[in-house]
User: Which sequence fits this backbone?
């Protein structure tokens, strides 16, 4: 199995991460609206104390903070976490951001109402041991009946078809259009794949080309459901893009008091 550093991947991507969106602020607002709706259905309007444990540059955390929630954000990448805090300030809100590994969350027990792990972050964990460690920590920092929200790619479909690439994304920059696309290299086990992330940004009459590599575990819905239930969560529910309006399948579950 390839051993690409997840932290290096996101440290390098952080300055240009927004270029994977056609319009980052529009995407922030749309994602926050959908996620807030899922939270309201389980916990009421709030505001709630939210931990985004894979915040990246703040796509979900900033949107939820602008919606009135008290948001703490952490990410394995210190560069990404620092940008999330700065971007929140630029938009007139505050999130507490820190660098932290989701397998070793440095927060007190039972302090959050909601824990968000979005943007296909959890499948960076490549073993059952790491996945169990992360989910145990997520359960620990949630209060009784607190809500877990995880979003991942549709790996049921991907495992069937084993795509070799993702469609290119074009976004506008001050210098012109930027193009982002991915190549996927599946491992022999049919469950893991190496991802090559290409980003082309305009530079005078040519292009700057950035290439970053990482590895994912393509967890099916049944696999992830089993891990979440084993970790002590109940009411595990999947929300498809068709039913939720979100761009990825969303898992919600509540912390079972023990």
Assistant:
């Amino acid at each position: 199995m390839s051993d690409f550093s997840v932290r290096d991947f996101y440290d390098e991507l952080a300055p240009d991460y927004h270029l994977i969106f056609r319009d980052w602020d529009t995407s922030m607002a749309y994602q926050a609206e959908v996620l807030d709706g899922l939270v309201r259905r389980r916990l009421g309007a709030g505001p709630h104390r939210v931990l985004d444990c894979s915040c990246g540059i703040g796509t979900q955390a900033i949107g939820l903070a602008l919606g009135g929630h008290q948001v703490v954000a952490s990410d394995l990448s210190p560069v990404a976490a620092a940008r999330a805090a700065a971007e929140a300030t630029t938009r007139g809100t505050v999130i507490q951001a820190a660098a932290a590994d989701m397998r070793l969350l440095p927060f007190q027990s039972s302090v959050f109402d909601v824990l968000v792990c979005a943007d296909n972050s959890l499948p960076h964990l490549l073993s059952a041991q790491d996945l169990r460690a992360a989910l145990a920590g997520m359960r620990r920092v949630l209060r009784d009946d607190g809500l877990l929200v995880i979003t991942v790619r549709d790996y049921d479909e991907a495992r069937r078809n084993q795509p070799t690439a993702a469609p290119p994304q074009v976004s506008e920059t001050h210098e012109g259009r930027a193009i982002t696309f991915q190549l996927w290299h599946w491992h022999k086990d049919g469950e893991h794949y190496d991802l090559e992330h290409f980003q082309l940004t305009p530079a005078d009459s040519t292009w700057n080309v950035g290439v970053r590599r990482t590895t994912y575990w393509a967890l099916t819905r049944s696999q992830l459901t089993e891990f979440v239930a084993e970790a002590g969560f109940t009411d595990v529910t999947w929300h498809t893009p068709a039913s939720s309006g979100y761009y990825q399948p969303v898992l919600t579950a509540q912390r079972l008091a023990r």
Q: What stands out?
A: The chain has a mean pLDDT of 94.
